[in-house]
Amino acid sequence: MAAHFDLSKPVAIGADHAGFDYKKQLIEFLEEKGLEVVDKGTFDTNSVDYPDFAHPVAEMVESGEASFGILLCGSANGVCITANKHQGIRAGLSWQNDVAKLIRQHNNANIIGIPARFVSLELARQMIDLFIETPFEGGRHQNRVDKIRCA
Fold first, then answer.
1. What strand order describes the sheet that includes 91-93?
2. Which of 16, 77, 11 is nearest to 41 (CA)?
3. CATH for the stretch 11-145
4. Catalytic residue among 4, 17, 55, 73
5. pTM score, two decimals?
6. Which among 51, 72, 124, 142 is most buried, taking Cβ atoms within 10 Å?
7. Is the omega angle on the peptide bond into residue 134 within 30 degrees of 0, that is, cis?
8. At 99, is the secondary structure helix, strand, or coil?
9. Does the active-site annotation cover 86?
10. CA separation for the pair 8, 21 (Å, rounded)
11. Which residue ranges make up each domain of the chain?
């Protein structure tokens, strides 16, 4: 697998209760690939507030402590909205393989948001592989990405 992230650093992952089961299985999937994973919670299926897990993942990615992040919740909208409050984060919501590629190619996303209630576990694995393997195209897309920052 050709990676376009620094995989010598860990992957940060977080989920709310709706994404908990997928998170457990995706951690195993990533570790089988030889990646180090830092699990920022949640740690069971009890109802929780998604920002409590999205912020720690975003902070790890933004600081450079993690190579990239994975966030899961029911729709992935809440975790992406939360993560995108951080200036150095570009969290993209992905529900199909082409979207997983495009958020990397065109948006240089550094967190992938996966809607656990709307995609299969197998599709989630495929999207993560594509997210890792797909390079940012730069060029005209770099100009657009440069305009995202507010501060």
1. 37-39, 11-15, 68-73, 111-115, 91-93
2. 16
3. 3.40.1400.10
4. 73
5. 0.95
6. 72
7. no
8. helix
9. no
10. 26
11. 11-145
Contact indicator for 107, 131 with CB cutoff of 8 Å? no
Q: Is 131 exposed, middle or buried (0-12, 13-18, 19+ CB in 10 A)?
A: buried
Q: Of 102, 106, 103, which Cα lies nearest the Cα of 83?
A: 103
Which amino acid is residue 83, in one-letter code? A
Tens digit of pLDDT at every position of the chain (151 positions): 456 899 999 999 999 999 999 999 999 999 999 999 999 999 999 999 999 999 999 999 999 999 999 999 999 999 999 999 999 999 999 999 999 999 999 999 999 999 999 999 999 999 999 999 999 977 888 888 888 887 6
Residue partners of 26: CB distance under 8 A and separation at least 6: 13, 70, 72, 121, 124, 125, 128
Q: Does 73 participate in catalysis according to the annotation?
A: yes
Q: In this structure, how many other beta carbons lie within 10 angstroms of the beta carbon of residue 138? A: 11
